[in-house]
Amino acid sequence: MHGRYERRKSKKTKSVKKILLIILGIVLLLLAAVIIGVAVYYNSMLDKINYVEVPKITYTQATESGMETADTSPEASEETVTETTAPHVASSADYINFLVVGQAAREGEEARLADTMVLCTLNTYEKTLTLTSMLRDSFVKMPDYKGHDGGRIKLTMIYHLGSYYSDGDPAGSMELMNQTLYNNFGVEVDYNFEVDFEAFVWIVNAIGGIDIELTEAEADYLNDDDVWVTYDVEPGMAHLDGMAALSYARMRKAEGDNESDIIRTSRARKVMTILLEELKKEPISGLQNLANEVLPKVTTSMSKSEVTDMLLMVLPMLPDLEINIGGTCPANYKGEMVDIYDNDQLQSVLRFDVAETTKTMRAITEGEGLETMPTEAEETN
Question: Helix, strand, or coil here: 313?
């Protein structure tokens, strides 16, 4: 009797194990299907982006801005290793710089002027994102490019010329802009993004518009804009749809504004900060809808693998990410608007101190000399 009981028990145990293995196999198949489905969907989203290959600049070899090659001597390396208990010291390894350009060229148009240029500096250690507007009127020295001699020109023209000299390729715009920013301001751009105005309008509308406080002059300007703004607004807190938000961000000649880009770019940074804060609150489904519509309107120098790596790094820090409106490059107190004649035409340009501007921007974008940077109170005195 005892032997028959053991045999029955053994058969029953084998049957249970077999059922469990079948269930486990089904679960694994379902899990694999989900993973494959997610991977296929993610790759399909990545395929919507327009990718261009922009040659990497060896920044330490560019000498026009007076930058020095980094110290890589054994003594420097040894000192870094031995100071393991010292407080964290900011270094370029903490910073990633994204240049976001909004350009207004419509399909078929040749001019690709950089209407808006915002440098987004991500400090991965402090979990901050600082927005710095690159002033379009800056009178910069353009480097020689693809057989064309460089010269003094407004920064906004660099983007167009890079494309023009590259037979319409936006990679040329990005390459020439990156070299120009480094030579004149010491800014090392890691990745480039180009977004057209249609994408901006769509994003604002997709999140239901934005709330922003308007001065009386700003409200009057928007009410006079019959192209982009289809309703009247009042001074104070106003709700703007995508078209009105774009008009606000590009506003340059409201009463009290001057001819420089200082006030205009402060509005653009304010709008961009509000957008980023709102996007942080969006559910996954909302972000998916945004991505479907916006990604085809985005061109970047990042590769697909770089986009993935960046997402894996940035997504966990989003809840704690602090977004700073930042300032301008050149800084307000380091530039001067002057009138010059160019091809017999009078135009206003922004002259600036290259050395001082480079020092300021290296601190903001690479963490160099932060301990010697002036405070906000000192800057305005």
Answer: helix
As a whole number of angstroms, the distance between CA 366 and CA 362 comes to 5
Report which residue type is found at 239.
H
Torsion from C-alpha of 275, 173, 154, 198, nearest 10 degrees: -30
Map tokens 């290259």 to a residue. 354
Residue with tokens 């808006």: 116
Q: How far is CA 267 from CA 228, 271, 319, 327, in A?
A: 16, 6, 25, 11
Residues 6+ apart with CB under 8 A from 102: 114, 115, 116, 117, 118, 194, 195, 196, 197, 200
> Cβ of 123: how many Cβ atoms within 10 Å?
19
Q: In this structure, what DSSP letter does residue 300 have?
A: E
Euclidean distance between CA atoms 17 and 15, whole angstroms? 5
Contact indicator for 97, 119 with CB cutoff of 8 Å:
yes
* pTM for the predicted model, two decimal places: 0.78
CA-nearest of 310, 299, 311 to 53 is 299
Bridge-partner residues for 101, per DSSP?
117, 194
Coil, strand, or helix at residue 131? strand
Q: What is the mean pLDDT of residues 105-114?
A: 62
> Residue 319 has what pLDDT?
86
In contact, 139 and 60? CB cutoff 8 Å: no
Q: What's the burial of 252, exposed, middle or buried (CB within 10 Å: 0-12/13-18/19+)?
A: middle
User: For the chain, how long is the longest CA-to-CA vector?
Assistant: 114
Element (H, E) at 102: strand 95-103
| pLDDT score of 376 | 41
In sequence order, what E strands does the chain have? 50-51, 95-103, 114-123, 128-134, 139-141, 152-154, 191-196, 210-214, 236-240, 298-300, 322-324, 328-329, 335-342, 345-352
Amino acid at 292: N
**Phi and psi, residue 4, nearest 5°:** -65, -35
**Tell me, what's the pLDDT at 245?**
93
277: left (phi over 0), alpha (psi -120 to 50) or beta: alpha
d(CA 371, CA 231): 49
